[in-house]
Amino acid sequence: MFKRYIHILLFTLCFASGYGQELSAPEYFALAKKEAKKNNFEKAAQYCEKALKEEPKNMDIKEFLGKCYMETQRLPLARVTLLEVLKENPKRTDARYYLINIESQTKRYSSAVCYVNELLEVKPYDKSLWMKKIGLYDLIGDNVESERQLKRLYQIFPEDAEVKAMYASTLKESAVKQDKRGEIEYSARQYEQALQVNRKDAESYLNLINVYIKAGNYQLALATAEKGLNALPGNTEITNKKIAVLEQMHEYQKAIDIVKAQQKKGNSAYYNKLLAYLTGEAARYYKNSDPYELYVQLYEKDKTSKEAKDYLLNTSVSRGYYGDAQELLNTELKKDPKSKKLLSKQLYVYENQQNRQGARATIQKLYDSYPNDSDISDKYQYYIFQDAKEQFRDGNYSEALPVFESLTSSTEYGKPANNYIYSIYLEQKAYGKALDHIEKLIAANPNEQDYILKKIDLLADMGDYENAYAMAKNYYDQNKDNLGYRYMLNDISLEYMKYLQEKEDYNTIKSIADELIAADAKNLEAYQYAISSRTYMKQYDEAAAIVEQALQYYPDSKELRLKQAGLYSASGDHKKAVESLLAMEKDYPYNSMIRNSLVEEMMMQAKDKEKNDDDTEAMNIYREVIMLKPSDTLAPVKLASLHIERKEYNEAMQVLDNALKSNKENQNLLYLKGVVYENMDDFKKAKEYQSQYNPPANKVADHKDHMEYLDSRLLKNQISVTYLKATADTLPFNLSVGTLEYSRFAKKDIYVARVNYTGKNSGVGIQGEADWYHKFNNKSSFLANVAVGSQFFPKFRGTLSYYQPFAKTWQAEIGGRYLYLQDNRSLYTGILGIEKTIGDVWLNARGSVITQGDDVYYNVLAQSRFYVRDAKDYLQAMASVGNAPEDLSLDFQINNTLSFPTTMVGAGYFHSVGYKTVFGILGNWYNYHITDDLYMDQYTLLLTVRTKF
To answer: What is the residue-wise DSSP string for 812-832?
Structure first.
């Protein structure tokens, strides 16, 4: 049974080290989510990394790992991880949300916009995405695109209060900016749109009135004031603004009437003073007769009066009497529809009336009639350029494109028109056309940096990173003092390296990163790529040198210091890795990620020590891990397993009990505690603890089988029946011996009662035996045997052997035997033996010295057992030499073979049925050298069956 103990121990150690601490991918993933809920994303990332080792194609886990990297500010690693997710499963949305966050934090706003657009294709009515997109364009500084996207959002959610407020606010901000730039017409249009959104916005009415006043268009100013009062009856500020507009138009009576109406609401010093002022102004105005009124009367009497017509036309335009002016112009243009003077005045009137449709039609007539007039041509180009810009903003690229193309040769609008053409091609993803267009621009303007940078960006957008990088590097090499080229080279290099990383072209990454570092020794991202590329190529020494260089500029970088420790680990220098992490742990004593990394590295260091058979040092490291992280379970399992292997069961039990204080339900610890009890022969407690273990699917059958084994060890009784048949070739010798045996098992003792029976022609022989096997606490043991027999058996036999284990797998035996034979002879035997277990093989050698008076005999026996079928069965082989048989228990051997040189070989097989019943067969062949030329062969066959109950 000793062999059985060794096998169980080895099995358990393998199980503990191979499966004891590993969880399934779903279990690791569940732990990761649990830690994430506590905002412990560093620990969550570690669990996700372990889960991915089990299921590397599980995109749910990898996506969540990307989120954890993002939350712990490992943004480049998060970006790469999430891009791998999208490459594997392009339809995922969460990954894109995370990438929007990452790209926003790293100020890669254009990339963030791309991910927003991809999500909007799936969720076109997601307001938050539209808001995010608008915010990104604001960060880019592209106010035009921001406004265009906001307009789209308003079209989608016209009744949404938040969207309406945001859209109106943006329109007003834009109006203010355009007003300051002198773009009166554009500013007015923005205020008008804002009022369409919110017709009760008093501020917009007031600002629009001011814009019209600034433009001299008092009619529109007055109309706006009236609209405002319709929407907001009684608004004092708009009322006062209307009075001011009427004053400017010399409509004093109307202004006075409004003031008097206000006075009726209550006495007001302001309106009293204003009434006196307006009355005085009206008196002064009407005191001097107005020539305009006189010419009106003249014109009404004589429509042919050129003097009256010219005065009225010029004065109505200058005074802002656009209704009168338009009436005169329409009349005169019927007479002369191509008059440059009249059309120019009509254009002026339309512009001041904010009648864009009329203005466009008029400028078209002027251009068609006078295409060579530079002023008209400039004005015409302005109008069509503004129209094309609006079409572009609204996404009507097919209508905007031909207009911009017609303006490419314009001195004033050529460059912006070309830029818009390029932008249209990009929006349409017509990369080939965009490339042709930008190359033409570069050819025409070889020193225009903006075009060169656009082409480099375009090549990158097309995925042609190799040429984009080559172009960026070429221009940088030629213009090293140019910051624009320097920044572009850096950005393209980083994008190119990210692309190459997906292609696993680490050698090219290494080269590019080294060039970036040579150009800028403080380029942290370049260092990261230089390190990672060398790491992937297993060039650990070079990578370590790069880390050392980077640490000169970033000595406090946790990421770099962790990489340094990781490189030590990857190169197999776990000692340096541990030293590095210990230093970090001192600097960041509350950083769980660093502590966990230190623990993992110490575990790897201990594992290496075990491989090198340095168990003592490995155990010391495991003890340090337990002190560093008392809640850890793997280190106690490893430490206890080594104690078990060294048969230090009390020490193993102490380690496990300490670990179970903080991990009461940890199955691995409980299972290993059951293993300790098993090796201490306490099979009841062994089963109690081992039965609590839930093995992985591929180990369920083995675990169930072992539970059956433990059940069998709890059985206290055993019955054995044996039959021995012995024959000889040269003598009329034929003997059979039958044996019935009963065994009783106690905790440290085994008691056996045995009866042997045989018969010959001369009668029957019976022998009774009793065995006592006792095991001490230090694993040493003894076996005592007493036998009393009738004829054919020794009258008396007494045997005592002591067994002492040593050096883990060895055991020594020393013993003695006394035989008192039927013929009254006495034999004394001294026994020395040694045995060793090697895996599934048990080896034994035993030497016996027998004395009878002055005669001395000896025998040397070697035997082995080869366990098979998970140690349920075993094959036994043996051989011996000497001048006495290996077993002097039987009288017939003593009588016939003592003093003859003897050799023996034997073999047998013992088969278990379950763990309760064993069937065995053993055959031996003895050869006795009787005389110089006479030999005798003897054959024995033993059959046995034993069963527990």
So the answer is: EEEEEEEEE-TTS-EEEEEEE
